[in-house]
Design a protein that fits this description.
Elements lengths: L1 E10 L2 E11 L4 E5 L6 H8 L7 E5 L4 E4 L10 H6 L5 H10 L15 H13 L5 E5 L7 H18 L2 E5 L3 H7 L2 E6 L2 E6 L1 H5 L5 H7 L5
Parallel strand pairs: 3-7, 3-8, 5-6, 6-7
Antiparallel strand pairs: 1-2, 1-4, 8-9
Helix pairs in contact: 4-5
The protein binds adenosine-5'-triphosphate (ATP) and magnesium ion (MG).
Length: 217
């Protein structure tokens, strides 16, 4: 369970996050959407304990795992990049299989493509159990097939441990297929909070409009 009340984050004079009340239940998967700079990463980093809040409360469980927005690789092959967290080799092999990376398992992780590296970073996180899984744009570098693998892996993880999942995304596909609830942020505040289907079909919500208006630049 995550409980947020009067949560604010300021940088200098600027308030980048300003949330009155928001809670996420055990076993719930929540997608956070909103424009660049709307506060998604800031919220995830506060919940992960990586940055300090300026005001208010953000109660989160003790065991938290966090996938950063920027993927990274350690030296060595893909298996080492997972076992480095303390996970067993068998767990690493199974996760690589699940995320479609088995054929690359002996390769140097630093040689992976962007989408492959993102899936490897997710394997590293999913190798451990937690009560709260925080994922910052887990499919941003993935093609449709890669995104489907990520969605299944997140779902299986949630089902196996009953944890809460909070993930930021710009992808309606991820929100609709993986989340029970979608929270849209705008300038650090909640613009909408409901089922992904309801929000995406609501033309009054700015974030939803960008996907339905057939934008041409
Ligand atoms: N250390 C910092 N100092 C000053 N401003 C910051 C700092 N970190 C973040 N910000 C600002 O806070 C705002 C929210 O940033 P945040 O990274 O949470 O956005 P986001 O919703 O994750 O965006 P994106 O979709 O681009 O990842 C941005 O305008 C950003 O410039
Ligand atoms: Mg971000």
């Amino acid at each position: 369970m995550v409980e947020i009340k009067g949560l604010k984050k300021r940088y200098g004079e600027r308030t980048v996050l300003d949330l009155d009340e928001l809670s996420f239940s055990d076993g719930e998967t929540v997608a956070l959407a909103g424009a660049n700079g709307s506060g998604k990463t800031t919220l995830l980093r506060i919940l992960a304990g990586l940055i300090e809040k300026s005001e208010g409360t953000a109660k989160a469980p003790g065991s938290v795992l966090y996938l950063p927005q920027q993927s990274y690789a350690f030296r060595g092959d893909l298996v080492r990049n997972i076992t480095i967290t303390g996970a067993g080799k068998q767990t690493a092999v199974e996760l690589l299989e699940k995320l479609g990376l088995s054929h690359l398992s002996g390769k140097k992780a630093k040689s992976l493509s962007g989408g492959e590296l993102q899936r490897l970073s997710l394997c590293r996180v999913l190798a451990k159990k937690s009560e709260l899984l925080l994922l910052d744009e887990p499919t941003s570098a993935c093609d449709a097939n890669g995104a489907a693998l990520v969605i299944r892996a997140i779902r299986d993880y949630r089902d196996s441990c009953g944890c809460t999942v909070v993930m930021s995304t710009h992808s309606p596909m991820l929100a609709v297929n993986a989340a029970d609830r979608l929270v849209v942020l705008e300038n650090g505040k909640v613009e909408a909070n409901g089922t992904p289907e309801d929000i995406l079909s609501n033309p009054g919500i700015q974030w939803a409009k960008t996907f339905t208006a057939g934008w041409k630049i």
